Every structure is written in C-alpha cells, then in structure tokens.
Amino acid sequence: MTRRQRKKAITRRHMLAYAGLAAAGVAAGYGGLKALDDLTSATSKPALQDIPDVVSANVGEAVPSDPDSSAWKKAKAVQVALAGQQVILPLRPEPSVPTVEVRSLHDGGRVAFRLEWADDRQDDLSIKIDQFRDSCGVLLGAYPASSTVWLMGTAESPATILQWRADWQRDVDLGFQDLEVAFPNVAFDFYPPLVNAARPLKLPDAYPKEARMWLPGWRVGNPLSQPVKQSPVHKLRAIGPGTLEAQATQDARGRGVWEDGKWKVVLVKPMTASDKDELALSPGSTYSLAFTVWSGSDRDAGSRKSLTQLGKLTLEA
What we know:
Blueprint: H1 3-23, H2 30-38, E1 48-49, E2 53-58, E3 78-81, E4 83-84, E5 99-106, E6 110-118, E7 135-141, E8 159-165, H3 166-174, H4 179-182, H5 216-219, E9 233-238, E10 245-246, E11 253-259, E12 262-270, E13 286-294, E14 306-307, E15 311-315
Parallel strand pairs: 1-3, 2-5, 2-15
Antiparallel strand pairs: 3-5, 4-14, 5-6, 6-12, 7-8, 7-13, 8-9, 9-10, 11-12, 13-14, 13-15
C-alpha cells in the first residue's frame, strides 16, 4: 500500500467512526466527542476531534521545550483531524497528514504546545529548488471569533502565528546548512568580495562585513535570510490572506525531534504581547486556535498545507 493510499484509508476509517457515533446516538459537537473521550482509557489513543478543543494545563513550573519531557504527561492529549486547504492557491484538496496529536501546558508566563504526527521521512533541508521542509504551526486569535479568523485573522481580530520549521531546527542543531550540504563537490574559483576570506567559505564567519552587502536579505535583516537561527520557531502576525509577516520581537522558542517515523515538536511563546497586534494570553481565559502541518515529501509549501478547523484553547486558571 502506498503512502497516499494509507492516508486515504485512514481518512475513510475516520469517516466510518463518525458514522458509527451518529448511529449510536452520540450528540454532535463537543459534547459527543467528550462523551467518547470519557470512555477511553488513559493508555488508549485519544478520541478523534474534528474541531480542536484544547485545555492548557497549569503545570506549576517552567514549561518544557523538550518534546520528550515527562512534564507533558500532565497535559491531556487530543487527536485532531486535519483537512485539505481548498481556499487559497496553491491548493491541497486532500490532507497530506490526516491527524495531529496536541497537548498544551502553561506556567502563567509562557504557553507551550506539543504537536506529534506520523511522517515516514524526515525533510529538514530546503537548499535545492525541489526540496521542501516539514513544518507545523499554531494560529491563535480572540474568542469567540468569526470563521474569517481561520483565514489568517482579520484587521479587527489579528492572528498570532507560531511556525516551527524543520530546516531551521537543523540549522540550530548543526549550524547553517549551505550549498556544500546539498552539493558536496561544489567548487569556488573567484569572488571579489571574498578574495581574502578564510577557507572554507562558511556562512557567516567567513564573510567579512564588506562582503555582506552582496547578500541583501541578510544585510537588511530579513529573518528568512539570516544564517544564524536563534530559534526554530518563527513568530508572525496576519490580518487576512496574504498579510503574513514576521513580528519584530522573535521571542518564541521550541524544539522538534524526528524519530521512529514521527515528528514531536514543541512551540513556546510568552503569554504577554511583545509586539503590535500580538495576542496577549491570560490564565482562566479562552482563545481561538487552529493547527497546521506541512509535509515536505508531499511538496507542501505556503498555503499548500493540511490544517484543522478553527477550535478553542482554554488556559487553566
């Protein structure tokens, strides 16, 4: 069975599960999903939700950035269905990833999300034009919210977005991944700004300040062009489709680990707002949220992604 056939099979099983719930007379919506979840033992896979309903537990200590921390046992896991993106080009009619498991913790000062999903290949390089990264994201907004917030926020209700990127994680772990990683036999003959530079020519150390003017993205501070990544998590804001931009204060943190055919990723942000239009969070309150996953081996990028419906996040007091 191919990977795509496995995904379709999983999707059909989910649809049969929903039909079975309806036939059994379980109420639709959160109530029905919770009823099934209550019947599930603690060691079983959490019940599938088609609309995320996440409770962020107050952990009483600093939230972890390590996805394997034992502290995550204090957070209730929810399994959320992902759908294709069929609104903005480029489209993804069917999800490349069918489900994602989500947990959340907060410590009164920072909120953390742990996402886990199956992926039989680790895609953490995006150097070549035909390479696409694995990635995931969390969208946060005010609650209650209109369905338009799901479309990357609105001018009246901006969305705060955290995106973890597998290639940035590799940069953080191994140092900036440059051309020699994708093309180990690359040769350097002569480049005037680097005549006296140290060899091997490795960004950023081998590039003197006078040579950096020839790399304009790096020179002007474009966060996508920086050879040194402080974090694999990018904090952004949006007020509608096509308005996504980086926030000035990049204080989100996290870590992703791929092993045994799955990604486990943590995304952490302060609960206070550091920038304009950033959502401030407080214990005991409720917010809108949605999750997104990109599969590099399925050539996901930009709006070609798998995503959940707009749900809610409740922070324990």
